[in-house]
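Reviewer comment 2.1 asked that we show a complete input and output for one of the modelled complexes. We chose the copper (II) ion case, as it is the one discussed in the main text.
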Amino acid sequence: VGVLAAGIGGSFAWYWTSADLSTVGKVRFGNELAVPPLAPSTVDKDGTRVFDLRMQAGSTEFRDGAATPTWGFNGDHLGPTLRAERGERVKVRVRNTLDEASSVHWHGMHLPARMDGGPHQMVGAGSTWTPHWKVDQPASTLWYHPHPHGATEKHVQRGLAGMFLLDDENSGRLALPKTYGVDDLPVMVQDVTFDGAKFDHGHRFLANTGFLGDRTMVNGTLDPYAEVGDERVRLRLLNASTARIYTFGFDDDRAFDLVGTDGGLLAAPASMNRVQLSPGERAEVVVTMRPGERTVLRSYPWRDGNGWERRFNGGDDSFDVLQLRAAERLRPSPEVPGRLAADRGLELPDADDAVRSRHFELRRSGINGQPMAMDRIDETVTRGTTEVWTLRNGGDMTHNFHVHDVQFRVLDVNGKRPEPALRGRKDTVAVPMGATVRIALRFDGPSDPDVPYMYHCHLLSHEDDGMMGQFVVVEKGQRAGEVPDHAGH
Ligand code: C2O
Ligand code: CU
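Response of the prediction step:
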């Protein structure tokens, strides 16, 4: 502790006493895991699948007799799971009934910039925004959440988040568990602290890393357990916390199969007993159960490549997340297929095709030395080209890096081949203190010189404070347009 604490400054004692989940409130597994409903949809005459999402204020009883003020989509807290097929046209009617402006960003989705739901597509209080696009990317576990500049953390913490699942021909054929809510479970993990009935969002690690709650909830359920009736269960893990990093594993250290990352299935399953997710990242894992057993999904201390436990972002804690209870008789499940991705492979860019490289220096105070400005385009990329971006965290604390619109390939971490969990399709990657991560990205979307996409740290208070930049995709030789300071407010 001494050595690492020296590197991160003074007030660590406060942190150990206020946010160490291993010593705070033992998890009792008294509540059955809530599974967000699948959002109903209608199909227009032209074949477009249409969803309705209403942002609303309400209250939720997380604990008996205590009504917590919360926000949700189509309900009091969190949102339904949207689901669509590759090749489909989708449209979402987003109605904001809150008394302040917000937005809805489709995290991980490949779509035109003006449909992206970033800070330039604000939905004012009382108004409706109706983005539409054609789903053109592999089956994956994506999610949606607000993105109002400077207030994303607050809006997500109050409960505005949901999953967006994509299917394709390949995923429909594969013998993976795929019955939603039965052997295919959304597992959205968030940390919370209560002050009486209310959420208390003031718990900050060294004031700077961000909020670290003292309890976890899954899909909005505290102390959750899930009954499992199948021999194999697929967990779609999403870190929807605003700063905490989780290193998921099971209490008996059993191996599980990692089958998918942020943007889709891996080429082949990878057997492991830990998978680390920083805020915004997803992992799909398949766990094999024995009849009648109980096993607990936990978060373990994070060890980096040097075997060090990294004491940041709550990464040193061990705590329970979700108990799985297997029935006495389990329906047999097929073996996890040895080959997962479709014939088209991972559809990831190749570094050899890169026509340009860029460098991003990640600091708490901003990226490449400046905080985000709504009316400044930081990078202009050419449609149809591949680039290599170097992400460097020179030292103040752990960050991560998320890029809108694309799924990228992680080329190397500190010059070394990435571990299996980083070899799939990624839209968010952790960049620990002192690390350099190189990624290859291909910008295939439609060009729009006037509407930027974002790249940013997904520790939400960092993003809110300006660890974000904007890029536009243009035609060859075209220049970036002008962006208004408060577009769409
Ligand atoms: Cu999930 Cu720009 O964010
Ligand atoms: Cu950060």
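The domain at 175-331 is CATH 2.60.40.420 (Immunoglobulin-like). We note this here for comparison with the apo prediction described in Section 3.2.
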